Protein 1
Amino acid sequence: MQLTTKGRYAITAMLDLAANGAIKPIALGIISQRQNISLSYLEQLFAKLRRANLVRSVRGPGGGYVLSTLAKDINLAQIVEAVDENIDLRRCKGLGDCNGGKQCISHQLWCDVSGQIRNFLNSRTLQMVIDNHEGL
């Protein structure tokens, strides 16, 4: 797994939305400015987040995006997977054919590490990250 800017930016934007969008929808332009993320990139990410039912759009004046559910019910793995990030460190993607058609010596290690990352992201919600940040 390589958590690229796609995954990092999606989590950052969702955290911004969760922290600031409880009262009214937030326009992507505002998130773009606050988080220094390209607006066109955010539009691409939010299209995927919307398809995954993590956010919904509100049209019209004062429109923007809101979370589809409570921040305590959205975990970080859902966000990463929604934007097509892969949480798997194995080069063979689980096929076990990474060493000339055979399983490489480090296959089980990467299975275990991938599982730990997946478990970590599954165990952290947007609300937990926000609460942790506010506590600093």
Protein 2
Amino acid sequence: MVTSTIALDEREIELHFLRASGPGGQNVNKVSTAVQLRFDVARSASLPEDVRIRLMRLAGRRLTGDGVLVIDARRQRTQDGNRREALDRLIELIRRAATRPKPRRPTKPSRAAIERRLVAKRRRKTIKSTRRPVSSDEA
């Protein structure tokens, strides 16, 4: 259960285990602890259309050309820890995609703000005009 309305089918998530670099001593060359999670966002029946679109935008470079989200987890030293981390990151991404963005309400500056801006422009104009060199006509 990702949110109150979205539940993922476990068959939609593929987990592949591979050897991780980093700490682990001799174990690092023998045990496949890193996890690569693959979730087909484009063809997922679990996601509503609006969430799917926002998730594809949020995924960025983690999304393949086929619409598959790829999450690599290799921080933990155990396979189970990396599996949990990858699933947590997927769930967090889907939760972020599930929240609808607030619609932008167009605003306009107040009359006082417009007046302040124009006064500041006039003041700046006079400051800059006094910096001009005096020509022979004006002297």
